[in-house]
Amino acid sequence: MTTDTHESPKVAIVTGAGHPDGIGAASAEVLRNQDYEVITFDLEGADRAVDVTDAQQVTEAIQAVAADFGHLDVLVNNAGVGVGSANLLEQTGEDLDLTLAVNVKGLVNCCQAAIPHILLSGGGAIVNVASLCGLRALPAIPHAYTASKFAVVGLTKSMALEFGPNHIRINAVCPGSVDTQMRSKAISLLAQQEGISLEEAESLETSTISLGRAATPSEVATVVAFLCSENAAQITGAAIPVDGGMTGGF
User: Fold this and answer.
1) 99 is in which domain, residue-wise?
2) Which pLDDT value is given to residue 248?
3) Residues 6+ apart with CB under 8 A from 5
4) Stretches in the chain below the pLDDT threshold 50
5) Where are the alpha helices (DSSP H) in 176-216?
6) What is the DSSP letter of 8?
7) 248 occurs within a structural domain
8) Distance CA 154, CA 146 (A)
């Protein structure tokens, strides 16, 4: 009689992965290429339809994944929205509520549901997709979005401190300009604020990037996957800019 000692693949959940050109979908693809079993969540277009603002729905979905595969090792919190005006006096309560519900409460819901299962696996990794706006204020960005991403960085650090002794590493990636639908919205807001064309706004934003171009979703995803891996075994509580030098070394 022979015994199969091959370990089962690590299981990862990636939220906000429904848009095919987004960071979530790219992260799922990179992790799958590294032999993870990956289950994607989103309102639509993902493996499972999940509203991260609904704690019960999140709990049930994550329990189902853990039951299907027998364990859970990794959570990538990518679900997020950027809505509303970059003018504080035009910021509506509805935009503020939605931003905080998805970007902050949704992340907490997912962590609260996933961590008990990751603990049962003996540890693992959580990566929160924050933003460069979680490290510094940028022009033409809705204030609620900036506030929510600072909250993501803060939650990352506090959770890392709590769960480090349980061998759960928790980090954030802070993308700058990335070629996604959210960048198109940001450029439109910048054009509106500065009274310039979309082409001029794109050139203006690009001029702030040391490497001279926006990142691709896959370039951000490779950093996400690195933080999920044992290659990052000594990294926790970090908020890592992936911004082509927009921080200027910040």
Assistant:
1) 11-176+216-242
2) 63
3) none
4) 1-6, 249-250
5) 181-194, 198-206
6) P
7) no
8) 12
How distant, in Å, are the alpha carbons of 33, 40, 121, 222 from that of 67? 23, 16, 12, 28
pLDDT of residue 201: 84
- What is the number of alpha carbons within 13 Å of residue 194 lying toward its C-beta? 19
Q: Number of folded domains in the chain? A: 1
Question: Scanning the structure block, which residue is given the tokens 């907490």?
Answer: 108
- Does residue 92 belong to any structural domain of this protein? yes
pLDDT for the residue 5: 38
CB 196 within 8 A of CB 140: no
Q: Which of 135, 81, 75, 154 is nearest to 109 (CA)?
A: 75
User: Any idea which residues carry the catalytic annotation?
Assistant: 145
Type and span of the H or E element at 210? none
Length of the chain: 250
- Answer yes or no: is 6 within a domain: no
**Cα(239)–Cα(130) distance, integer angstroms:** 8
Tokens of 237: 């509580």
Q: Specify burial of residue 199 (Cβ count, 10 A radius: 0-12, 13-18, 19+).
A: exposed
